[in-house]
Amino acid sequence: IEHHFADKALQGVKLMITAGPTREAIDPVRYISNHSSGKMGYAIAEQAAKMGAQVTLISGPVSLTCPQGVDRINATSATEMHEAVMGRIGQQDIFIGCAAVADYRPEIVADAKIKKNNDQMVVTMVKNPDILADVAALSDAPFTVGFAAETHDVEKYARGKLEKKKLNMIAANDVSDPSIGFNSDQNALTLYWTNGSLLLPATSKSNLASQLLMQVNQAYRKQ
Ligand code: CTP
Ligand code: CA
To answer: What residues does CTP bind to (predicted)?
Structure first.
């Protein structure tokens, strides 16, 4: 009975998650992007659905199949992902920003392939909208969880983002450790919220996803 209860802890909860990278076009054949396999976000989406949540997965370009029972919406650029999220966020209870969103996009997208006529090439970039911050800033914001991929001073930067973006929780991972994160099937996370933190040691991404969701659910019920 207890097992069944834990499995369906998110029954009826509407949960939206972003996953994967975004691609910012330079011309019709080139783009700028981030490292992201999408595995962590997809594992969270899959696990949330198993726990009974109604899951909307806003996905950047990845080579993963959509988890069973999950409603996937594809987006390529950060601008597209922002539109896909903001257009559907009204009905959501929990939002998890797991995507590796490109911070900048080329100011001008060439409409024809750029030829290598010069020894140097300069691409002027402009800032993309911050999807996570915009969700958290809504007057009726859902319970909002961010991710922070850091190479150093993990806690300092993660807590900085928690506060600046007015998040309920942030999950930080140290991407300087090659054995975890990115294309790996394993990951470790430290969760931070205003009054506490919790280390989730290295394990499979699906195991980590279920631990993360149990913490998110607990904090979401408490708020
Ligand atoms: N994020 C987002 N939209 C952006 C940039 C980031 O939704 N345009 C989200 C990510 O999905 C993640 C969180 O913000 O949940 C933190 O992303 P991260 O790149 O670690 O932080 P930034 O705020 O972009 O700051 P910086 O890259 O300078 O560390
Ligand atoms: Ca960033």
So the answer is: 97-99, 103, 113, 129-132, 147, 161, 165
User: Are the C-beta atoms of 128 and 150 separated by less than 8 Å?
Assistant: no
CB of 213 sitting under 6 A from ligand 1: no
Q: CA separation (Å) from 126 to 35, 49, 122, 129?
A: 20, 36, 13, 10
Distance 98 CA to ligand 1 centre (A): 9
Instruction: Name the 3-class secondary structure at 103.
Output: coil
CA dist., res. 165 & res. 101, Å (int): 15
Q: Are 26 and 32 a contacting pair, CB within 8 Å?
A: yes
Which pLDDT band holds residue 185 (cuts at 50, 70, 90)? Answer: confident
Ligand that comes closest to the CA of residue 149:
1
Q: Count of alpha carbons within 13 Å of 177, Cβ hemisphere only?
A: 15
Q: What is the pLDDT of residues 75-128, one digit of tens each?
A: 999 999 999 999 999 999 999 999 999 999 999 999 999 999 999 999 999 999
- Is residue 34 annotated as a catalytic residue, yes or no? yes
Cα–Cα nearest to 60, from 119, 106, 18: 18
* Average pLDDT across the chain, whole number: 94
User: What CA–CA distances, in Å, run from 82 to 22, 60, 92, 126?
Assistant: 11, 11, 15, 15
- Cα(1) to centroid(ligand 2), Å: 42
Of 65, 184, 83, 166, the residue nearest 129 (C-alpha): 83
